[in-house]
Amino acid sequence: MKRIVYCFFLLSMLAGKSWSQDALRKMHYNIEKGVALSGYDPVSYFTQKKPIKGLHTCTLVNQGVTYLFASDANKALFKANPAKYEPEYGGWCAYAMGLKGEKVSVDPETYKIINNKLYLFYNQFFNNTLKDWNKDEAALKSKADKNWTNTFH
After folding, report:
1. What single string gives the DSSP state of each residue in 12-23?
2. Which of these, 68, 31, 66, lies nearest to 53 by C-alpha position?
3. Residue 144 falls within a domain, yes or no?
4. Residue 5 to residue 3: CA distance in whole angstroms
5. How many CA atoms within 13 Å lie on the side-chain side of 19?
6. pLDDT of 82-122, one tens digit each?
């Protein structure tokens, strides 16, 4: 009987740890109205070479973060390899993450694919941060990577 209780306790702890990691991850991601990428299909940036709005009838939750997809085929691609398609820095502005380590909203249609990774940028009120990012991409990316890592520690 003690073994059963102990096993149940261990399973509960593992489930709780997974849930808390998902909750922490979701807390740090740029989520609008319950979904990432303002409802754009993350796979479309790579396969269609442009962002396409996902459908509310075609969703997938990955580690606490909900994504919408334009097709079942895109959903299947994402499910097979989420790390390939998820936006860097939780979908926050890459430039702001590199400049000051800040979480700044983005225009999901202002993006760049770098080494097969999706980076998003703020683009409103005559301020397109992708242009600033392009001026010093290597340094900003290095700083953004460090700042994002520190977000979870």
Report:
1. HHHHHHHHHHHH
2. 68
3. yes
4. 5
5. 6
6. 999 999 999 999 999 999 999 999 999 999 999 999 999 99
- On the question of pLDDT at 132 being above 70, the answer is yes
The amino acid that residue 42 corresponds to is P
Query: Which position has the token pair 């390939």?
Result: 84
Share of the chain above pLDDT 90, in %: 76
Residue 140 resides in a domain? yes
Catalogue the E-assigned strands of 3-132.
Answer: 31-32, 35-36, 55-62, 65-69, 107-114, 117-121, 123-124, 127-128
Domain that holds residue 92: 87-153
For residue 111, is it within any domain? Answer: yes
d(CA 9, CA 63) in angstroms, rounded, equals 22
What are 50's two structure tokens? 């442009």
Q: Which two tokens stand for residue 80?
A: 């097979």
pTM of the model: 0.84
Same domain, 46 and 67: yes
